[in-house]
Amino acid sequence: MNLTTDQTNGPRRSRKRSGKWIFFLLLFVTAAIIAIWWKSAHSANTSYIKPQYTSNPFPVMVEGKWTEAYAQGTEEGLLIPLTIAQQLMGDGVRYEETTESIILTTETKILHFKTGELDATLNRKPFSLRFAAKKMEGDLYLPLAPFQELFGVKVDISKPEGIVSLFMPGEAIQHAGVPEKTSKGIKLRDGPGKSFAIIEDLPAGADLKLWSEAEGWYKVQSKAGHIGYVSKGAVSLLAVETIPSDAKTEEPFVAWKGSGKRINLTWEAVYSANPDTKKIGDLTGVNVVSPTWFELIDGKGNVRSKASAEYSAWARSRGLQVWGLFSNSFEPDRTHTALASYESRFTMIQQILAYAKTFKLQGINIDFENVYTKDKDNLVQFVRELTPLMHEQNLIVSIDVTPKSNSEMWSAFIDRERLGAVVDFMMVMAYDEHWAASPIAGSVSSLPWVESSIKRILEEDGVPSSKLILGIPLYTRIWTEEPNGQDSVKVSSKTMGMGSVTQLIKDKKLKPVFSEEDGQNFVQFTEGKLVKKIWIEDATSIKARAELAKKYNLAGVATWKRGFETNDIWGALDTALQSRQ
């Protein structure tokens, strides 16, 4: 029995020793693998890499990124892709493929030239380019020199790599440096970590442009133009460089020289004949008149004039500025064609400038309405091309816009933000809240709706308050509600001036009440089965709107239209608008 027991126990002890040996072996192998992985993961990559962008000459860098595009030509006559120019200058670069026209616009300049041609025009005057725009493999390349001269673009072409870096005036760039005590220098790597390959050796004292930060590494650009990563601890922060403008600076155009007075404009509706100035009377406080004199008559850009030298002389004799109104006749097809090309836009501009000089105007008021949404960009371009030439002739540019809404033809085509950046003034036509054919009766311009209209343009579109002018109605509507079957009402309206409403109230011995909801007086009466309603425009509503203009520090007000008012309106508006309380 003892022998059997010993034989049984022997093999068991042998298996235990074998199991421990295997466990330690596995532990050793695992530790070795971890050590190898740790060393591999934490040791520096010593290999070098040539970045993809070096495969061709003149790779273009913007804001520390390769644009995946290349410039063409020579260093002296460098050409950059149209797409890069548009990325940098936005609306300042326009290309019209049908006529091969390239138009560069700034606040003061319009440069027009065509592909393959050196002859150009700068603000309507002949101008010669040193290098022409070219099409290569289907892509358009533009000469860089005009962008340096007009926009102040700064260009660095690195040696010996030939990397092209473009910078815009005002761009702020943080610099970093490799400390002088770093005897061996540091490595510029392809990614944020030592495991990434080396792009370039950076010596002690190297100056770098710092673009961003990631995982304890800085994304930088070297003097050679290469973009890569360096460890944050390996560099020290230096000064912030602000890119200066190499463009020629000019005195800014001052649109309003009204000696602290807010603009108080009234529109003069001229349908056929101009008004008899002897019958206009005193316009207390009004400092600008805008007669509806000019209208687009065809898609070629021709403009009809109803301007009157007599009216212009009358206005100037009273110290009033004249801003002639230019409308598109509210014809969308005609407008589409006229705005579509540089040639037709230029035709409009030439004629408007000629009329302005002939009739001694101080400004132009653009009133384009009923326009296709697809023409939004073309309208912005027209205004960009018009404004510098107007300013060159000391003329003010203003544009009329509706309050923001979903209406395709009356609101959606207006890019208030982009237009507001170009024009001197923007009139918000804050009326027709309830328009002539509205299915429900209501105010032409309730105070809460007016205030909301102002705030949306200020806040959503960023139009400066100093450019915004509040459009005020001098008219209202008498609404008729007629029973039209069970629980149905037919609504119609008729436009009325202030004098007509005052006479109606007097004749019918009505007593208006103030509507807190609408911020204006209201009256209602019946004629048989018909219910009549009027939201009254009078001194009360006019003064309330002037107070809104002051509340939001707007440039002033504009009233539509002279002739609808009662005599007391001008004095009440002037007092409310110009007081500084």
Describe the secondary-structure layout:
Layout: H1 2-42, E1 59-62, E2 65-70, E3 79-81, H2 82-89, E4 93-96, E5 101-105, E6 110-114, E7 119-122, E8 125-128, E9 134-136, E10 139-143, H3 145-151, E11 154-157, E12 164-167, E13 172-177, E14 186-189, E15 198-202, E16 207-214, E17 217-221, E18 227-231, E19 236-242, E20 263-268, E21 288-291, E22 294-296, E23 303-305, H4 309-317, E24 321-327, H5 332-339, H6 342-358, E25 363-367, H7 376-392, E26 396-401, H8 408-412, H9 416-420, E27 425-429, H10 447-460, E28 468-473, E29 475-483, E30 489-497, H11 498-507, E31 513-515, E32 520-527, E33 530-535, H12 539-551, E34 556-560, H13 568-578
Parallel strand pairs: 1-12, 20-21, 20-34, 21-24, 22-24, 24-25, 25-26, 26-27, 27-28, 28-34
Antiparallel strand pairs: 1-2, 3-10, 4-5, 5-6, 6-7, 7-8, 9-10, 11-12, 13-16, 13-19, 14-15, 16-17, 17-18, 22-23, 29-30, 29-33, 31-32, 32-33
Helix pairs in contact: 6-7, 12-13
Structure description:
The chain is of the alpha/beta class and 581 residues long. The protein folds into 3 domains: 52-157, Copper Amine Oxidase, Chain A, domain 1; 169-242, Roll (SH3 type barrels); 264-474 and 537-578, Alpha-Beta Barrel (TIM Barrel), CATH 3.20.20.80. The protein has 13 helices and 34 strands. The strands form 7 sheets. It has an 8-stranded parallel beta barrel with strand order 20-21-24-25-26-27-28-34, surrounded by 4 helices. The chain is elongated and about 115 Å long.
Fourth-tier CATH superfamily name of the largest domain: Glycosidases
Overall CATH class of the largest domain: Alpha Beta
Overall number of strands:
34
The total count of helices amounts to 13
What name does CATH use for the topology of the largest domain? TIM Barrel
Structural class: alpha/beta
The percentage helix is 25-40%
Described by strand count, sense and barrel closure, the largest sheet is:
8 strands, parallel, barrel
Q: Taking strands numbered 1, 2, ... along the chain, how are they ordered across the largest sheet?
A: 20-21-24-25-26-27-28-34
Architecture of the largest domain, CATH level 2?
Alpha-Beta Barrel
Task: Note the overall shape.
Answer: elongated
Unreliable stretches (pLDDT < 50, length at least 5) are 1-13
- What is the average of the pLDDT values? 93
CA radius of gyration is 36 Å
Q: How many domains in all?
A: 3
